[in-house]
Design goal:
With 282 residues, the protein is an all-alpha fold. It contains eight helices and two strands, in the order ααββαααααα. Strands 1-2 form a two-stranded antiparallel sheet. The longest helix is centred in the C-terminal third of the chain and has 39 residues.
């Protein structure tokens, strides 16, 4: 199963995007479920105002931009990184192109964050523009990782092909959201594939670059590929368990908050919300 082999890349280079995608996949699932629960529960409109969702969108955009900047700086300025150098004219060769691949991916997701902020602050921009930028970023990511493994071992190519499959499906789902706005099923489906990406980035890191310092998996063993095919399905099943837990927790939290308020408190919150909305309109 295991065999020493020299592979390009690093464990951290896959753990970092895996962590970012896990955070965002979890957050998007929470946000979708929260909006759905608020639509189903009439009294939640007095507990969760439009201003709160507006702040959530702004915070989401800022968070995505920060993650993209951290990812780019991490790829550029780690030990042995390109340090913003694309071509070495003295040696006549390109510098750390795999790192530049990752930087390009982070850059396009950074644009998603910028678009999110602009659509939240400029009313003339369509809200669906964020979904369009998201699908574009995912398609660019899929294109990058499809061309990420030229000249690599069979196992390395296979695990990245599975990653490309997950990214492409996520991109198509994000594109579908342009025409199915507010559909929680489609939104949660996108979140599930984002979480699948996150899990699989971590799996690639453990397979190709074991953090314990041990030998990497045998890149020529067909049984490893057979196992990873099953493992990919297990990771996808895990995403539904995660989303199910999030759904149960969010719905319980919202209902418990509703039950805490008496009718008089709900009326007071209603008046406060109306005052806030009138101030926003002014």
């Amino acid at each position: 199963m295991l065999k020493g082999a020299k592979v390009m890349g690093s464990f951290k280079g896959h753990a970092l995007p895996g962590t970012f995608f896990f955070i965002m996949g979890t957050w998007w699932a929470i946000k979708s479920i929260l909006k759905y629960t608020c639509r189903k529960q009439k009294r939640t409109s007095y507990l969760i105002s439009k201003a709160l969702f507006y702040r959530m969108e702004l915070l989401e955009g800022i968070t995505i931009i920060c993650m993209a900047v951290i990812g780019i700086l991490g790829e550029q300025f780690i030990v042995g990184g390109p340090h913003l150098s694309l071509y070495n004219y003295k040696e006549g060769q390109w510098v750390q192109l795999l790192g530049w691949h990752h930087c390009t991916m982070y850059f396009f997701f950074g644009l998603v964050g910028v678009t999110n902020i602009l659509c939240s602050t400029i009313s003339s921009l369509p809200a669906s523009l964020t979904k369009l930028m998201m699908s574009n970023a995912l398609f660019v990511e899929a294109f990058i990782f499809y061309n990420h493994t030229h000249g690599r071992e069979m196992l390395d190519i296979f695990v990245h092909q599975l990653l490309v499959l997950a990214i492409l499906v996520t991109g198509f789902i994000a594109f579908m959201e342009l025409f199915t706005r507010g559909n929680i099923t489609v939104e949660l489906l996108r979140s599930s594939f984002i979480l699948l990406q996150a899990n699989w980035f971590w799996q690639i890191g453990f397979v190709l670059y074991p953090p314990s310092g041990g030998p990497a998996w045998d890149a020529t063993d067909h049984d490893n590929i057979m196992f990873l095919t099953i493992c990919f399905c297990w990771h996808y099943a895990l995403t539904f368990i995660i989303i199910g837990i999030i759904y149960a927790f969010v719905t319980w939290l919202v209902k418990s908050r509703i039950n805490r308020f008496s009718p008089s408190e709900v009326g007071l919150l209603k008046n406060v919300e109306r005052e806030q909305e009138s101030e926003e309109e002014m």
